[in-house]
Write a structure and sequence with these properties.
It is a single chain. This protein folds into two domains: about 90 residues, Alpha-Beta Plaits; about 150 residues, Rossmann fold. The termini are far apart. The chain contains eleven helices and ten strands.
């Protein structure tokens, strides 16, 4: 039987302790391309039912945990119009009630990456809705903002957004917001960023390198990290048992 091909997108969430090694090996075998945080696209060869065949292929390559979530997206033609559809292969959508229940303990310290603030004040950003949900979750916590993230956040776009800059200014003035100096991390972060970007081993921005230094510092008490760029921090978060939100 001649096999057919289908372009698919796979969104995945394996949590902090998931078997990402097996997943990435599977994605490599599909020649998948990264399409953002935890999303990959690939051409899949199938005989009759690509949903069931993708599901079976994943099960054969990964020990599926009951908490894993895999969401498959594909295009189809209906009435001569292109449409998009998606379906969970494993897991299910998290209800809003879980987000409401999962409120961070008030004394906890939450380190926030730049991407969160950019999404929060840009309605066209793909993470706009998620950022507003997270903002509700962390109300009353101790918000930790490394100084370099402010340079990225208060950019030309935000400076022209009157409502956004006013809202962000109020957050900065809250007594539970900590502006963290980065002086002691700069040199190591710069060296790390230059070395990894030069040899393409792990290209990373200077600001993200500084965040990595902060996460590595056992003298800085961090309980949660909000980021939409998990892959650059997940190793340190696993090591220090810092939960990633986002």
């Amino acid at each position: 039987m001649n096999k057919k091909k289908k372009l698919l997108w796979l969104s995945y969430d394996l949590g902090l302790k998931g078997d990402y090694t097996s997943l990435y090996t599977w994605l490599d075998s599909m020649n998948a391309k990264e399409c953002g945080n935890s999303i990959a696209s690939f051409w899949f060869e199938y005989e009759s039912d690509y949903l069931e065949e993708v599901k079976k292929s994943l099960e054969e390559s990964i020990d599926i945990n009951k908490n894993y979530r895999f969401y498959l997206i594909w295009r189809f033609i209906k009435d001569d119009k292109a449409s998009v559809k998606g379906e969970f292969l494993f897991g299910k959508r998290k209800p809003l009630m879980i987000l409401q229940m999962k409120r961070v303990n008030r004394p906890e310290r939450v380190l926030i990456d730049t991407g969160f603030w950019i999404a929060l004040y840009n309605p066209r950003d793909e993470y706009y809705d998620n950022a507003h949900e997270l903002l509700e979750i962390i109300q009353g916590t101790n918000i930790v903002l490394p100084w370099p993230t402010l340079y990225e956040t208060i950019n030309t776009r935000l400076s022209k957004n009157t409502d956004g800059i006013n809202q962000f200014g109020k957050i900065l003035k809250q007594p539970n917001t900590v502006l963290l100096e980065d002086a002691e991390y700069r040199e190591r972060a710069l060296e790390y960023s230059l070395q990894n970007s030069a040899n393409s081993k792990r290209p990373i921005s200077l600001v993200d390198s500084i965040i990595r230094e902060i996460l590595s510092d056992v003298n800085v008490d961090i309980h949660y990290l909000i980021t939409y760029n998990k892959k650059d921090f997940i190793d340190l978060c696993l090591k220090r048992r810092i939960e990633i939100l986002g």
